Amino acid sequence: QDRFFPSCVCVCVPASSMEQCACVERELEKVLHRFVMYGHQSEERLDELLRSVCEIRAQLVAFGVQDADLSVLSQNMTQCCKNIKETVQMLASRHKDIHGSVSKVGKAIDRNFDAEISAVVAETVWDTAERQKYLSESIVEHLYRQGMLSVAEDLCQESGVVIDMSMKQPFLELNRILEALRMQDLRPALEWAVSNRQRLLELNSSLEFKLHRLYFISLLSGGIGNQMEALQYARHFQPFASQHQRDIQILMGSLVYLRHGIENSPYRSLLETNQWAEICNIFTRDACALLGLSVESPLSVSFASGCMALPVLMNIKQVIEQRQCSGVWTHKDELPIEIDLGKKCWYHSVFACPILRQQTSESNPPMKLICGHVISRDALNKLTNAGKLKCPYCPMEQNPSHAKQIYF
C-alpha cells in the first residue's frame, strides 16, 4: 500500500464538500424518476395497443372479411393506426425530454466537480516499468479478491504481468468458500475451519464455533423433524464448551421449543438472517489473517484514501495559487500539511523511533524489546550500558541481545 500516492488513484471527486455530491445526486434522482415513469407509461400504452390489434385480428378470424361489415372494420383499423402513430409520437417526445434531463446531470457534474487534478498529482509516479508493474499487480490482486478471475487473467495477458500460482490459489479457495456461504452452504467453510483449527486457535478465532452454531441453527429451522440430527450435531460444541458456554446453553435450550417452532419462541433471535453476512465477514477476516493478507484490498484502501484526500489537496492548491506561495509545495512525494484520513486509514510504511525522533531504515531497523516496546537499533545501542538495557517506557531491565528486529 505504501507504493501508492492516495491522491493519484481517483478520477473524479467533489471539489469542496458533500454539498456538490448532493447537488449531482438530486439531478440524478430526477432522471431516474423520469426513466421509471417513462417505462410504466410505455408499458401501459403498448399493452392497450396490443389488445386493440388482437381484438381486430380476432374479429377477422372469427367472422372473415366476407361476413364482416367492411366499413366498421375499416373504421376500427384506421382508429387503431391513429392510436399507434400518436403513441409513437408521444413516447418519442417524452424520450427526448429525458435526454434533456440526462444532459443536466452532465452539466451538474461539470459545475460541481473539478476535473483537472493534475496539479496535485505527482508527475513521475508511474514513470518507470517497475512502478507500472506494481500497479498492475495490485489491480490483479484486487480482481482476484473480488472473484473476478477471468478479468484478472485477461489483464495479466494484456499487461504482461506474470502472477505465480501460489498467489492465485489462496484467492481461488477464498472465493469458492465465500460463494458457498452466500448460498448458505456451510460445508466448505466448515471443512476449511477444521483443517486449520490449530492456526485459528492461535489467532483466538471463534470462526469454527460460529460455523457449527450456524449449522445447528439451520437444523433448528427445519422443525421437529430435525430434532435427533440436531442433538447429534451438538457434539461438535464440546471442544468449545469452556469458551462459549453461555452460547451453547442458549442453543440447547432452544430445543425445548422445537415442537412449536423456534420462530414462535423466546429464541426466535437465533433465526436472524444477518448472521450469514456476519459469518462471511468473520471468515474473510480470519482467512486473510492466516494467509498473511490484509482484510481489505490495498487498491480499495488506496482509492478510499484518495477520495478523502483529494478535496483537501485541491483546496491547498487553490490557497497556494491565491497567496502565490509556490515554494511551499516543493517535494513530489511530500504534502505541505497532514491530511486526516480517519483511524481506518492509519497505515505506516515507515517507523519513527520515539527516542531519537528519526525514521528507521534498512541500516537502522525497528527493534522490539521483550517488554513489547519498539525503538530503533541506534536508540538501542545508545541506551545500552554495561551490557544491560532499561526500557525508557516500562522501565524494565533486560538484555539488549534479546531484542528482535521486526522490519526490513
From TrEMBL:
Localization per Swiss-Prot or TrEMBL: Cytoplasm
Record's signal peptide: none
Entry keyword Phosphoprotein: no
Keywords of this entry: Cytoplasm, Metal-binding, Transferase, Zinc, Zinc-finger
Keyword Nucleotide-binding: no
Name of this chain's protein: E3 ubiquitin-protein transferase rmnd5b
SUPFAM superfamilies in alphabetical order: RING/U-box
PANTHER family (alphabetical): E3 UBIQUITIN-PROTEIN TRANSFERASE RMND5B, MACROPHAGE ERYTHROBLAST ATTACHER-RELATED
Classification via InterPro entries: CRA_dom (IPR013144), CTLH/CRA (IPR024964), CTLH_C (IPR006595), Fyv10_fam (IPR045098), LisH (IPR006594), ZF_RING_GID (IPR044063), Znf-RING_euk (IPR027370)
Pfam families noted in UniProt: CTLH, zf-RING_UBOX
Span of domain CTLH: 170-227
Location of the RING-Gid-type domain: 353-394
Encoding gene per record: RMND5B
